[in-house]
Design goal:
Layout lengths: L13 H7 L4 E4 L3 E4 H18 L6 E5 L4 H12 L3 E4 L6 H11 L1 E7 L3 H5 L10 E5 L13 E3 H6 L14 E6 L9 E5 H14 L12 E2 L13 H8 L2 E4 L5 H11 L3 E4 L1 H8 L8 H4 L3 E4 L6 H8 L4 E7 L6 E4 L4 H4 L3 H8 L4 E2 L4 E5 L14 E6 L11 H7 L5 E9 L5 E6 L4 E3 L2 E3 L1 H9 L4 E11 L3 E10 L5 H14 L10 E4 L13 H5 L3
Parallel strand pairs: 1-11, 3-4, 3-5, 4-8, 5-6, 6-7, 10-11, 12-13, 13-14, 24-25
Antiparallel strand pairs: 1-2, 8-9, 14-15, 15-16, 17-18, 18-19, 19-20, 21-22, 23-24
Length: 533
């Protein structure tokens, strides 16, 4: 008999987990608690119910939900029966929700009750859906014109757990759509192998300094489950055996309560979420519960001012990097042996950088001729990457796929420099870059410097068309306390004197605004800011 060929599929994550950590908890807000063993039983039952409804291998199953236990169950049950999980961006306007579901060719939908009315407004357009699986937190009957419809909990309770098939690791597991800064959102797909290897590498990386994750840490991702697999944490927790907390719909007060009551010690998020937490009027009441909280920031650069603000509460903020097309994590600002020997202030600068590649990631910063830039912390190039979990394509878009994978490397569109120790520092997104007189102005560096001013809240630098220079930089700022433009320029001029900032980089104007426009994934939307110029 031939040797068993092991498949890197999601099912094969679970035997060791269930053997070693059967009583570990998954917690949904203050409403529900399940042990890992109970969770797997529910996954098996809903998986069987989906098969009995008619879900076939390769069928797309959409989910419209906040970060709940039902979503977590779908993360496992849908791919493990051989179907494809479509994590629908519920912050899209209705027309884009329809577009992505139609483009993905969804056949079944798991939907929270509060999203039903949104779909009902255009119910006739969703004639391609074969079944609607609806739930409410109170398991109440939801009356709807969507047909055929089923109650999630009724399906689960009337089914026996399925014996999941041992799928080929290259079977497609997920699809979701990029936030689409230009044009329509693009679909990206990932296989079981992609997800398992990504989670494995991430589980290895988080044990390193300065994260030092142990089995006592409690995880709570504050990246929506519809966005890039919640950065992989729902799969990592099953590998590491850590308690996992699901916050539901994001509410800062409830998040602070969960940190307090569940002893949350590791979270992932974009900078704007951390800023909302730190500026919440009740944050001082939770100070002792925030101390020691480890926060990995991605999706946008980690501003130094925000990191210093967090440090006052004893929060340990660490930079990370990835994008929708990369599953997403590529780098985390972990410490190498040389960094560990530095003074605290020097290490702080590295801790908030883009970081270094996690295991299995081959990352380069290249010039226009595809040559690696020198490690001089000055020469700007584009980040290109190879890793075993990158998307193979933009779904149904061969032209953009070819651009993405030019020369056999995935092109991120992110501009960066590399310092003498090999740490990457992103200076701009190619599409957001300000190019003045043919030269790039590093907007992230300037944003970072301005963020250090105590009165400043959030900062964004964008380019304004200029007849002479092509573009000139304009700075948008929100404030925590009153501040003048002159004080901001004085702060920037001090960096000119040290040589860190060039005089021609100074913004032509500083515009104060009440709040920053945000994309559907919580990042500052520079496209909207440019409309004000």
């Amino acid at each position: 008999m031939a040797a068993y060929k092991y498949q890197m599929n999601i099912r094969n994550i679970l035997p060791a987990t269930l053997r070693n950590f059967p009583d570990q908890e998954i917690v949904y807000q203050d409403q529900k608690r399940f042990t890992f063993k109970e969770f797997y039983d529910r996954v098996g039952r809903i998986g069987n119910a989906l098969v009995n409804l008619g879900v076939k291998p390769g069928d797309k199953v959409a989910v419209l939900d906040w970060d709940t236990n039902h979503y977590m169950e779908s993360y496992y049950a849908v791919p493990m029966i051989g179907a494809v999980l479509h994590t629908v961006n519920i912050r899209y306007p209705p027309e884009l929700i329809f577009y992505t579901m139609q483009h993905a060719e969804d056949k079944y939908v798991i939907i929270r009750d509060e999203f039903v009315p949104i779909i009902e407004k255009a119910a006739q357009l969703f004639d391609f859906i074969k079944g609607w699986i609806i739930y409410s937190d109170k398991n109440e009957e939801v009356k709807t014109i969507l047909t055929p419809n089923y109650n999630y909990e009724d399906l689960l309770s009337s089914s026996e757990p399925i014996d999941f098939p041992d799928l080929d690791e290259n079977t497609q597991a997920t699809i979701f759509y990029t936030s689409g800064t230009t044009g329509l959102p693009k679909g990206v797909t990932f296989s079981h192998r992609n997800l398992v290897l990504h989670a494995t590498a991430l589980a290895m990386a988080v044990h390193k300094e300065p994260l030092y994750v142990t089995d006592k840490d409690v995880f709570m991702s504050l990246v929506p489950m519809f966005h890039v697999h919640s950065w992989g944490l729902p799969y990592v927790t099953m590998i590491t055996g850590n308690k996992y907390v699901l916050p539901g719909r994001y509410d800062v007060k409830k998040i602070l309560e969960l940190i307090k009551n569940e002893h949350v010690s590791l979270s992932l998020m974009v900078p704007s979420i951390l800023y909302m937490i730190l500026t919440h009027p009740d944050v001082e009441n939770y100070g002792k519960y925030l101390e020691g909280w480890k926060v990995v920031i991605g999706g946008a650069a980690l501003p130094k001012g925000l990191a210093k603000m967090a440090e006052k509460y004893g929060i340990n903020t660490i930079g990370g990097y990835g994008l929708s097309e990369t599953c997403p994590v590529l780098t985390i600002a972990l410490f190498t042996d040389k960094i560990k020997k530095m003074r605290d202030e020097e290490r702080f600068e590295y801790k908030i950088s883009t970081g270094i590649p996690i295991p299995f990631v081959n990352i380069r910063v290249v010039d226009s001729l595809d040559k690696d830039v020198p490690w001089d912390n000055n020469t700007i190039g584009e980040i290109v990457v190879r890793a075993p979990w990158l998307t193979g394509e933009y779904y149904k878009d061969p032209e953009k796929t070819e651009q993405l994978w030019k020369n056999g490397w995935l092109h991120t569109g992110d501009l960066a420099v590399v310092d003498s120790l090999g740490y990457i520092h992103i200076v701009d997104r190619e599409k957001d870059a300000v190019k003045s007189g043919g030269e790039f102005i590093p907007s992230l560096l300037l944003e970072n410097i301005v963020s250090e001013i105590p009165e400043v809240g959030e900062v964004a630098l964008v380019g304004k068309p200029d007849p002479k220079w092509g573009e000139r930089p304009i700075l948008f700022v929100t404030t925590k306390k009153p501040i003048t433009k002159e004080k901001i320029y004085e702060h920037l001029n001090r960096y000119i004197e040290t040589g860190r900032v060039q005089k021609w980089w100074l913004p032509d104007d500083v515009i104060f605004i009440d709040s920053m426009p945000k994309t559907s994934t919580g990042k500052i939307d520079k496209k909207e800011l440019r409309k004000n110029l």
